[in-house]
Amino acid sequence: MAYYLGVEVKQLEDGVFITQEHYAKEILKKFKMEDCKPINTPVECGVKLSKNDKEEKVDPTLYKSLVGSLRYLTCTRPDILYATGLVSHYMENPTTTHFKAAKRILRYLRGTIDYGLFYSHTNDYKLVGYSDSDWAGDNDDRKSTSGYVFYMGDTAFTWMSKKQPIVTLSTCEAEYVAATFSVCHAVWLRSLLAELGWSQKEPTTICVDNKSAIALSKNPVFHNRSKHIDTRFQYIRECVANQEIQVEYVKSQDQVADIFTKPLKHEDFIKIRTLLGMTNQV
């Protein structure tokens, strides 16, 4: 087993297992949570946090240290990426409510301390992505959150959860903006893979669960619905026209990127976590 900068790599007969178990234990010990009661999701379903929270303030330095530690852990733990991004919004003036939400992530880690990503041997080098968005999920500025994840084989290898830079006017627009972010990343990945000798001869599929956003990416006749959207988000149409990217519909219950955009119910969370390739069975 190799150990470097908190990342453990275990070479197995049928693949490679990557984890940060030791680093996660250090975080729990640092914040005196090594004996806490485990919980089954990193963020409570339906939770709504706000910068205008009136609860008692907590030490910003302590809070930033916790969030920073969790941030590094997302290198191998995509399952906590959304929750970590959520609590990151409140580092300037954290309250006990925000700190409680951050400590919930530690409680989740306590029960999944040995989880990581297992990459099995495969000859499947086809790049496939999933893109999703919530709509107006931030209570303070009403901005949406974009999320995407890319696969080669059965396990995710790159992912993102980030608040959008603009306020969108509909779920269609929010999904369209999220899809554009994922397309930009897909084009970069295609270029990188080509340099590594794994050229993607076919268009890269991006799976989206909003049919209106898919139609908007393919057909300029929707001009009246999209003329207010910044031109930088129209790049997706060019990529579709050039057959670098194809945008396909996926049912919401099969949308893997959902885990990066909103709090999920326990059953949905566990399902998507498994689809990401996360496991403790090695």
TrEMBL record:
<dbReference type="InterPro" id="IPR043502">
    <property type="entry name" value="DNA/RNA_pol_sf"/>
</dbReference>
<protein>
    <submittedName>
        <fullName>Uncharacterized protein</fullName>
    </submittedName>
</protein>
